[in-house]
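Hi V.,

You were right to ask for the full record rather than a summary. Here it is.
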Amino acid sequence: MRTYDTLLSCGLIALALGFSPAASFDGRPSDAAPNQSTAPAAPRPPAAAAIPRATPYEAQRSGTQALRAGKLDQAMTSLEYAAEQGMPGAMWKLGRMYADGDGVSQNKLRAFEYFVNLTKTHAYEPPDSQESRFVASAFVALGQYYLDGIPDTAVKPDPAVAMDLFRHAASYFGDQDAQYHLGRLYLLGTGTAKDSVQAARWLRLAATKGQRSAQALLGGMLFKGQGVARQPAMGLAWLTIAKDGASAEEAWITETYRSALAQASADERLQAARHVEELVRARRAAK
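Predicted structure:
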């Protein structure tokens, strides 16, 4: 089984992120569809000239402040300069802006490029650094792109590469979203052999950190005994916690909880309530 650590240690990160069929060394697609341009929509003045005395950190901070103030052009100039200088926060912010269409036209390929460059240059950012969360998030975003591909571009679905990306963010950075995605792929057998034990392990790690989707999936597994020993009370407890934090867009969590509650016995409900108290206390103690 390939792992992201193996790709990195063998000098093959370029294969996964730079020289794959999806992208060339600089992160730009090698054979993108003609209607998907990778060039900026309009030329900008040289960033360095615009902020001659700014350090990369100052440019990143200035760009973030300009965004909050609604000064998009100023923000883009500062963030692009900071990104060119390798600032993880600026690279991540620009990637997210293009991924979400936040202040700019949505362009998933541009987002992909920023995330590729961020992960290539900061794959082993110290996990306890302030910048590590940006790197981990970029790995997760790339994993999602490799799961689904980007329509009309050379970025095609590759679940095995997605697994490698999620695994690195989950194990090296301890990212809860990566742990959730990794557990889900093990549960489904996507990009890897189906393994319910590994799925439960990764989902539990994410669940204890407050990842609601992981809490719900783990709860469902335990309640049903899906590939693991059946623990209905503990499963219902995790589903209860997930339901309590679920948003309107996460209706599936509420429905999964209601289904389990309807099937649970009175004793299982009572035990679940006790487990909820224990899990909440453990979560507060870990903060």
